[in-house]
């Protein structure tokens, strides 16, 4: 494997790409609500996401000694560094932000680790996964930067939280279509219950209220609407062409790139 391929594997499977997606949404919140960049929020969002996702994927390697390939061990090492960075940045957050972040941390922990004997984690509760992940993403990318900046709370923030929640659900549904052949039937994912075709239709329907929520803002920004329209069309295309036969990079890289692509669109159109 070439050096470039190894680095790309590390970037994707080391959850740096998903961390970049979360960071992109945090930066979009800053842009929309005119919040100055805060390094602690940015580092906490990126590194906290990177560690959380890697812990979910490789949690056995964190808790007990197991044999693993060199690349996976290196991912665990980088994840440990990410945890330290997230911990340090946490100390520089505002007190209200720290309390809020702890709530999302607890949800992430419950999602991953069974705390009580003979119990399952939330990840194994049928139908719960999609909402827990969407709630945490929406909270970290919307609530955390808003609270840390002491920005005034208004209806626009609730609209943005709802939009982010819906976006993550739509992205997860694409993931679930791709992972249909590998997912445990007991997970009862949406495609397992209603089929691929109906899941795609559901995703396309979700895109409609997602788009029109922008018109309910106190101050409607038509440049933002233009960026949203392009992003909605892009997400619709990824939904239509999603099949269980697609390679994993279809979601792990391309679908996860949608928030980054969205931020790029917003910044580009706003500069025109």
From TrEMBL:
Keyword Cell inner membrane appears in the UniProt entry: no
Transmembrane segments: 7-27, 33-53, 74-93, 99-116, 128-149, 161-180, 201-219, 225-242, 249-269
Transmembrane helix found in the keyword field: yes
Descriptive protein name: Prenyltransferase
Keyword list, A-Z: Membrane, Transmembrane, Transmembrane helix
